[in-house]
Design brief:
This protein is globular. A hairpin with an 8-residue loop joins strand 5 and strand 6. About 30% of the residues are buried. The strands form 4 sheets. Strands 1, 2, 3, 4, 7, 10, 11, 12 and 13 form a 9-stranded mixed sheet that branches. Strands 14-15-16-17 form a 4-stranded mixed sheet, with helices on one face. A two-stranded antiparallel ribbon has the order 5-6. The chain is built from 7 helices and 17 strands. It has about 300 residues and is of the alpha+beta class. The two termini are about 40 Å apart. It folds into 3 domains: about 90 residues, Pseudouridine synthase (2-Layer Sandwich); about 130 residues, Pseudouridine synthase (2-Layer Sandwich), CATH 3.30.2350; about 60 residues, Archaeosine Trna-guanine Transglycosylase, Chain: A, domain 4, CATH 2.30.130.
Length: about 300
C-alpha cells in the first residue's frame, strides 16, 4: 500500500468564478476547488442549492475578507417551471401534493408575471435552512411538522419569459438577496390556476460578476497548475462596484496602520483604497469626516 501523501497548503489570494454542477453542495464545491489550488483558506459568497447549477464565486486567502459583501448583492437566475404539478418543497425533490390540467396561454403568462415584479412578500418554504428555536425548518419538514412563517419582503427587479411550451415555462429572474425562486415558481403557478414547481435553476449573475468568466471543476482538474492559476481573479474582483481612491506616501502608511486619511469630496459608503495600483483595503467615512480603514489586506507580490 502506498503511504498517504500529506496535503501541502499554501497562501492563495484571489477569487474563482466557479460554474457549480447540479447535485453538489456549495461547500463540497468549495472544498474540491480549494484542494485543486492547495489554498490554505477559502470561503464562498452564499450557498447555491444542490438542485441548482451556475455561478458560485469562491474566495481564497485575503479575498475571504470581502466575501460577505456579495451576500447582499442582486442575483440573476434562469429557471424552469413545470406547470400543473405542485410539490411540498416547491421543487422537483419534493412530494407531489396536487396536479391540475394546464390551460395556459402565452398571454396568460405575460399578464401574470408583472404581478411578481417590484417589492413583493414571500413566505419562506418549510424546506429551507431558516431556523425555528434553533432547528432548521427542513428538519421539521422531514418530520411532517409545519410551523407558521412570517412573510419576508424581497424585490424582483425583472422577470423575462424565455420560453413556453406545453407545461414547461422558462424564466429569467433578477432579484434581491433572500429571494426563493421555488416559492416564486409556486406562486406563479397558483396565479395561473394550475400550480407549478421548479424543475431546474441556473444562477448566471451575482452582483457585477457573471458566468462569462466562470470555469467548471472538470475544466479545472484538466488544467496544469500554471494554467489553473490564470483563472484566479484578483482580490478586488468582488469590489468593482465600490468607488476607488489612490493614496501614496505617508497617507498610505497611515491607512495601513489603521489610521484615517482624507476623504475626497462627493464620496460616501465603502471605498476601495489603492497604493501604486495595489489594493490595500476598504474604508468607510467616519468621525472627523475622514476615511477610516474597515478591512486591510496583505497580498503576496505575485498575487496582487
Amino acid at each position: 500500500m502506498q503511504p498517504k501523501v500529506k496535503k501541502t497548503w499554501k497562501q492563495v489570494d484571489g477569487v474563482l468564478l466557479l460554474d457549480k454542477p447540479v447535485g453538489m453542495t456549495s461547500n463540497d464545491a468549495l472544498q474540491k476547488a480549494r484542494r485543486l489550488f492547495s489554498a490554505a483558506k477559502g470561503g464562498h459568497t452564499g450557498t447555491l442549492d444542490p438542485l441548482a447549477s451556475g455561478l458560485l464565486p469562491l474566495c481564497f486567502g485575503e479575498a475571504t475578507k470581502f466575501s460577505a459583501d456579495l451576500l447582499d448583492a442582486d442575483k440573476t437566475y434562469e429557471a424552469e417551471l413545470k406547470l400543473g404539478v405542485t410539490t411540498d418543497s416547491g421543487d422537483a425533490e419534493g412530494q407531489v401534493t396536487a396536479t391540475a390540467a394546464v390551460h395556459v396561454s402565452e398571454s396568460d403568462i405575460f399578464n401574470v408575471l408583472p404581478r411578481f415584479t417590484g417589492d413583493i412578500q414571500q413566505v419562506p418554504p418549510m424546506h429551507s435552512a431558516l431556523k425555528r428555536d434553533g432547528r432548521p425548518l427542513y428538519e421539521l419538514a422531514r418530520q411532517g411538522i409545519e410551523v407558521e412563517r412570517a412573510p419576508r419582503a424581497v424585490t424582483i427587479h425583472a422577470i423575462e419569459c424565455l420560453g413556453f411550451a406545453g407545461d414547461v415555462l422558462r424564466l429569467r429572474v433578477k432579484c434581491s438577496k433572500g429571494t426563493y425562486i421555488r416559492v416564486l415558481a409556486a406562486d406563479i403557478g397558483a396565479a395561473l390556476g394550475c400550480g407549478a414547481h421548479l424543475t431546474a435553476l441556473r444562477r448566471t449573475e451575482v452582483g457585477d460578476l457573471s458566468l462569462a468568466g466562470a470555469v467548471t471543476l472538470v475544466e479545472l482538474e484538466a488544467m496544469d497548475e500554471a494554467v489553473r492559476s490564470v483563472r484566479l481573479q484578483p482580490v478586488d474582483a468582488l469590489l468593482q462596484s465600490l468607488p476607488r481612491i489612490d493614496v501614496a506616501g505617508d497617507a498610505a502608511q497611515r491607512f495601513r496602520h489603521g489610521n484615517p486619511v482624507d476623504l475626497p469630496a462627493g464620496l460616501a459608503g465603502k471605498i476601495r483604497v489603492y497604493e501604486n495600483d495595489r489594493l490595500i483595503g476598504v474604508g468607510e467615512p467616519g468621525r472627523e469626516g475622514r476615511l477610516w480603514p474597515k478591512r486591510l489586506v496583505q497580498l503576496a507580490d505575485n498575487l496582487i
